[in-house]
Amino acid sequence: MTSIRRRTLRLILGLLFLGLLIMTVLNLHDSNHEIDEVYDAQLAQNARLLQGIMRMPMASKEHAELYQAFNQALGQAAPKVDGHPYESKIAFQVWNAQGELLVHTLSAPAFAAASAAPGFSDVTDPSSHKWRAFTLDDTQYGLKIWVGERDDVRADLVDRIVRHTVVPNLLGALMLAAVIWLAIGWGLKPLEDMAATLRARHPGSLEPLQLMPLPTELEPMQAALNRVLAQIQEVMGRERRFIADAAHEMRTPLAVLRVHAQNLMEEGSEEDRRESLEHLIAGVDRTTRLVNQLLTMARIEPQTDTHAAPSIDLAATVRDSLVQLTPWLLDQGLELAFDVDEDIGRVRVNAAAIDIALNNLVTNAANFSPPHGLIRVRLAKQQDHYELSVEDQGPGIDEAERERLFERFYSRGNAQGAGLGLTIVQAIAARLGGQIRLENSHAGGLRATLEIRRF
Length: 455
Description:
It is a single chain. By secondary structure, the chain is α+β, with helices and mostly antiparallel strands. It has three domains: 148 residues, Beta-Lactamase (2-Layer Sandwich), CATH 3.30.450; 65 residues, Orthogonal Bundle (Helix Hairpins), CATH 1.10.287; 148 residues, Heat Shock Protein 90. The strands form three sheets. It has a five-stranded antiparallel beta sheet. Strand 11 and strand 12 form a beta hairpin.
């Protein structure tokens, strides 16, 4: 793609020269029209002046002498010495009623009197010269007056107009193009400075841009770049945290697995080997859950625009998630109840986020529920949000321990837990613009409530 300067220059110069061309064509058209009008008026006026001279009252002999004096004077004209070059291109001639040529200039074309029609006309003489002529019939005195002008007189004047208007305009347009080129360069200087600053930055630099002073048009661009840099910083920070967390948390489970594997190799009896194998399988399961939780944490983006999420049926989404969990809960010897208000509407949230949060809350409730316990899930409508709560019949929590439950890798009384479930739910709550609350229920047990804003 071409540069902004070249695109802008091509557009401006294209419009400039197009406008210049249109104005030139219009000026030439108007000039030709006005020249024709003025010269035609002069032809008619000259014809009437001749008519006045030819009508002078005098005897026939005096008329003959007048005609002879006319012809002698016109025959002695020397345009190159004491006249004008155009004299040979302007002519007139007069005929009487009998068609006799009375007066004429030497440059006048040879026409018969009968061929000269009254009024304006365009004719071509035997020398192939074109003439613009005006013929005047004087019926009272029996005269036919023809006044003509060579066409190249007018063409020469038009050429002079072109040379004195179009050529200066063209040169001025070229000079203006150079000035516009420099002006566009000066106007785009802040953009070039910004590009130079970006090129000079280290590839790994994610510091926000602070270009001052900055034109108003470039402020949104700088703000957008800074937002992108901030998002990249956040993503890279999350990746670093994920790698650090994974490295920290995987170290101990892998060491435990190695111990169990060594014990399995060293055990002598079948019963001891089976016990070591069970410990090994349990360690693998715990490591698998830990990896799954770490991957879930890595997928959560708290600053994702919830308005861009599709509209979903919240009640149906929760119900589908519980249907998937029901076989596992029954296998654990637990019961599940789901209560939902009738007027639950549609919301703009990510269905996967709801599913992940509900899975973690139900799993936590199952881990602390007594045998044959009941896990109650409720979806209720509040004034400006929905509440998704999961209540178990476990021992509940101590008030002093409540905040620690949201810490990463803190697992309260559950050796098989990864300590990331409530951390994940808290991140999802932030993503949904709500919060997660933990409180002991009146009947005993823990109630975890997730707020979901009604966007």
